[in-house]
Design brief:
CATH superfamily: MFS general substrate transporter like domains
Shape: globular
Structural class: mainly alpha
Helix content: over 70%
CATH class: Mainly Alpha
Radius of gyration: 21 Å
Oligomer: single chain
Number of strands: 0
Order of helices and strands: HHHHHHHHHHHHHHHH
Strand content: under 5%
Number of domains: 1
CATH topology: Growth Hormone, Chain: A
Distance between the termini: 47 Å
Largest sheet: none
Length: 397
């Protein structure tokens, strides 16, 4: 059993973290677009942020596993990243913003992987109910994205920098409420860390990379896509909020989903949903169809994210849980999104936003095909090993 205070503390972190994301994802690139930045510049800023998400979660995660210092590192990273974000108030120059983005990302990057590791440890044997804590992040995202969509119609998208700063300061303020790491400190490179290089982990992380690369068009250019189609900021906010509302349903029923279906099947279904979602956005301009496609977010993000966290927790040995979640976050939300942002930033001027979603469809299909093929090979290998064991047993008899 877990202590209720620990659950409440973790839930509050999700609420604020994803509340800030509800400002950043729909509106920061739109803010840059209004500053006059090109598609390449917008993609480059997003990609620079993602570069830090590749490298530094693993650095901080390794340090936390070695020193048992996850809690103080978590507080430090929240505090310094909030202070760094304040520098965006002082400039609208691309080069300066690029430098701030890198500095900010160094400290911001490990926050979510630490939070996922904290949640897994807090839940203990109740890990299948992960979604019931994680849904508070979706609630925070929806609340903010809807409110801000209306707010910038009254004022200006310029307000986003100040609002993200306020949210980040609140997150830093209550970050001290999270529980400490309960596991003993480990050496820098443990047997558990080496076990993360197992073929199952490598294939999963590679496919997760493709899944998030396919999201580059959505996270980088969806708001711009809608604005160029003539939709208002309120509609943009509604579209993002609707997507997050559907993920809440997936999280509410997470225990039932993961009790009934294997993680591998949930992941495969999520890949298929992503390919369908990007295919629709690559062809549709109707508001009804666009909003309907947002319901697929329940699978492309909701079930995929939850299954990924649980799957990585299963693959990670006890002495490398922080590092395992950090590697997962780095190679998917870090490297995957970075590549997705660069590709989409480079292609936006050539093929427009409709073309970006068509490319995303192919990337999601590739990730699902590789993951599905590997599962078939693993089943075949397992059956062969069982048959070999039975054959040897019969020979011994």
């Amino acid at each position: 059993m877990t202590h209720p205070f620990s659950k409440a503390a973790v839930a509050s972190q999700y609420f604020l973290y994803f509340g800030v994301m509800g400002l950043y994802l729909p509106y920061f690139n739109l803010y840059c677009y209004h500053l006059g930045f090109s598609g390449f510049h917008i993609g480059a800023l997003s990609a620079l942020r993602s570069v830090t998400m590749v490298i530094f979660p693993m650095v901080w995660g390794t340090l936390a596993d070695r020193t048992k210092g996850r809690r103080p590192i978590y507080i430090l990273c929240n505090t310094i990243s909030a202070a760094t974000w304040a520098l965006f108030l002082l400039t609208e120059d691309f080069a300066t913003m690029a430098l701030i983005t890198v500095a900010y990302g160094i400290f911001y990057s490990p926050v979510i992987s630490f939070l996922e590791a904290i949640t897994m440890e807090t839940l203990g044997r109740e890990k299948k109910s992960y979604g019931r804590i994680r849904l508070w992040g979706s609630i925070g995202f929806i609340s903010v994205v809807l409110a801000f969509g209306k707010l910038i119609e009254v004022f200006s998208v310029q307000l986003i920098i100040f609002c993200i700063l306020i949210g980040s300061l609140l997150l830093a303020l209550i970050s001290a409420t999270v529980p400490s790491d309960q596991r003993p400190p480990r050496s820098l490179l443990t047997h558990g860390a080496k076990a993360l290089v197992h073929r199952r982990s490598v294939v999963f992380l590679g496919c997760g990379f493709l899944m998030l690369a396919s999201h580059g068009a959505y996270y980088g250019f969806f708001s711009i896509h809608l604005e160029t189609l003539g939709y208002s900021s309120t509609f943009i906010g509604l579209s993002w909020a609707l997507a997050s509302s559907t993920e809440i349903l997936a999280m509410l029923y997470s225990e039932a989903i993961f009790s009934r279906f294997k993680l591998e099947r949930v992941l495969l279904a999520s890949f298929a949903a992503a390919a369908l979602r990007w295919l629709i956005l690559g062809a549709a301009s109707s508001p009804a169809v666009i909003l309907m496609s947002q319901f697929l977010h329940a699978m492309t993000y909701g079930t995929f994210h939850m299954a990924s966290i649980l799957y990585m927790d299963r693959l990670s040995p006890t002495d490398a849980k922080n590092l395992g979640q950090a590697v997962n976050n780095a190679l998917t939300y870090g490297l995957g999104l970075m590549v997705g942002f660069f590709i989409n930033g480079a292609l936006y001027g050539m093929m427009g936003s409709f073309g970006l979603f068509q490319v995303s469809t192919l990337i999601a299909l590739a990730g699902g095909a590789v993951f599905g093929a590997f599962q078939l090979l693993e089943r075949g290998r397992t059956r062969a090993e069982v048959n070999e064991t039975n054959h040897r047993s019969n020979d011994d008899d």
